[in-house]
Write a sequence for this structure.
């Protein structure tokens, strides 16, 4: 039998698992709830138990697996295989995840942060088409990302490579939770889009359902902004244009710096699809020099929820090759 | 005898050569004039002849060498080892440099563009301290650069990775020769510094020798701007501050994206030394999030003119290891 890989996507609500072939085809998948009680001390044991159960169920044994990969929130020490500061898991102290899982299951284990792992997934089996140079940006509650360059996932000297949410797109912009200002995250995360709408609504005088909803104190979401824009609301279109200007500037400078085959946009905000992509691309082209404009593409993510488990499998596969 | 490497730095005026140990110690160096006559057709033959002559002079033979590396102006096809569009060499058609040199000398040959090669040099034996993650920026007539990430020199999908001179630092900025606007090069190359001075002089009303020189139509250089600033000229200090603001924004975003161990600044404008570096660092800190601010350093280049031949040797060494 060909060897298999286990990919795990650890989140604050659910833990997703998959068994994949070494070609990245998902053969089995399942998930369990994340039990974050008692400082998240049940999380790793429940992962171990769930994998044991499934291995038995499928009549497999540890020798059948190349390895296990996992994406996690928080700060990861990829050498040691530990996590710290994953607040949505209640993990505030250092968690020796790799040691616990390897000693319990006897299968090699590799760990990285969830945005990097999603980048590996989109690069391997998604929009990145397994190209050696792919950048992934996820527009969700925050803005994260991961960079694969010359075939390698980048980490940098302190593990911050790929943190594109904190690229400065406006030196005089909004304050960010990171302590500086004008970060991409402040204007293109789900809350960032609403922030831009609230800010611009103060100046907009015309007729707009979106502006009216904001002025009425309704609970407007990023999704609402895009829906109003798609229906032709002038003010909503203005907001989307401003958001895409910032995304085009940031992705343009990623292109000018790294010239990847593609910059892949995922996360909840990217549900706006081609309506978003085409507008980001317009500004990307404005902010890139000709050779980059003609070679680097702006794409939408393709894997959705599966990017995590597929990327985790990719991580395990790379880890097994490096050994 | 331990094997040696030959490094070549091909420029429009001179061709520099060095013989180095595999530890990067320069043992011999020499140079010849670049003969760009007749479409630069004498360049490669003169390189071959010069190396043959030196190999004989030192009683060495081709087996004594790991390889030859070269940095060149123009667009390089690193796979094929060809160069095109090196206008200061009069090379307007594709030059099969690798093929010519390897068939004449029988020593493996590797080629890359001069900014990438200088980056390899500064990373290996200069300010980069052989760290796997180093970015090099050269502030000269133009602004170029090279990126080493996870130990690899990056090229991107069309060879444009590291072209940091065309990062957009001001969406409403000056027109650039590349066809877009607001590029770092327009405000921090030697001519860019003077451009910023001329632009700001229109608004400055106070007492300044620099402004007077500009208003008198004198031929002011980037060096003059920094010299006036170091003497305390208020207007010159304002110009330097603006230039360093842009450099801090660009290097800050390189830090936020790639989190290298260091961003190394070289080229003619960097002759301003610590006066420049400390001011770039101030803005770098303003434009980076805490983990990057505390881990990525802004440094001055250390190798000067030797970066080219040392980096070329590094290229040859990497090339020999990949085979």
């Amino acid at each position: 039998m060909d060897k298999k890989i286990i990919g795990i996507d650890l989140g604050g609500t659910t833990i997703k698992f998959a068994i994949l072939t070494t070609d990245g085809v998902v053969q089995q998948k399942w998930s369990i709830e994340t039990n974050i009680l008692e400082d998240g001390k049940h999380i790793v044991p429940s992962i171990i138990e769930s994998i044991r159960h499934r291995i038995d169920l499928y009549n497999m044994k540890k020798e059948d697996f190349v390895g296990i990969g996992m994406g996690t929130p928080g700060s990861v020490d990829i050498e040691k295989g530990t996590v710290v500061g994953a607040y949505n898991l209640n993990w505030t102290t250092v968690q020796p995840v790799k040691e616990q899982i390897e000693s319990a299951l006897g299968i090699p284990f590799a760990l990285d942060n969830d945005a990097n792992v999603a980048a590996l997934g989109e690069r391997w089996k998604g929009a990145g088409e397994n190209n050696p140079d792919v950048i992934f940006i996820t527009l969700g509650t925050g803005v994260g990302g991961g960079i694969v360059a010359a075939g390698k996932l980048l980490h940098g000297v302190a593990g911050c490579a790929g943190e594109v949410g904190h690229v400065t797109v406006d030196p005089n912009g909004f304050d960010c939770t990171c302590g500086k200002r004008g970060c991409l995250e402040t204007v293109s995360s789900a809350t960032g889009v609403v922030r831009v709408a609230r800010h611009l609504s103060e100046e907009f005088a015309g007729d707009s359902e979106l502006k009216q909803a904001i002025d009425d104190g309704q609970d407007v979401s990023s999704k609402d902004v895009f829906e109003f824009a798609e229906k032709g609301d002038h003010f909503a279109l203005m907001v989307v244009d401003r958001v895409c200007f910032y995304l085009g500037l940031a992705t343009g400078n990623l292109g000018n710096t790294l010239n990847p085959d593609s910059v892949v946009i995922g996360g909840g905000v990217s549900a706006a699809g081609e309506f978003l992509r085409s507008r980001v691309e317009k500004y990307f082209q404005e902010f890139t020099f000709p050779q980059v404009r003609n070679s680097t593409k702006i794409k939408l993510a393709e894997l959705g929820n599966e990017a995590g488990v597929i990327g985790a499998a990719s991580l395990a596969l790379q880890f097994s090759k490096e050994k």
Chain B touches chain A through 48 residues (CB under 8 Å).
